[in-house]
Amino acid sequence: MQDMIVSANQLVAGCIVTADVIGKSGMPLVKSKTVLTDMEIFYLQKMLVKEVTVASHLENGSSFVPEKDSVSMQPAIIQVHFLDAYAAAAKGYQKQFNAWQHGSTVDIAALRKHILPVLEKVSEWEGNVFNLPAYKEQIDYLSEHAAGTAALVAAILQKAGFSEADIKQIGLAAYLADCGISKLKQPYHIQKRRLHDSDWEDVQKHPTFSYRMVEQAPLLSSKAKLAILQHHERADGAGYPLRLPKEKIHSFASLLSICDTYHALISERAFRAAVSPYEAVDIILEEQFRRFDPAMIQHFIQAFIDAQQNTTVRLSSGELAEVVFTDNNHPTKPMVREQETGQVKALTEMPHIRIDQIIL
Question: What pTM value is reported for the model?
Answer without folding.
Answer: 0.78
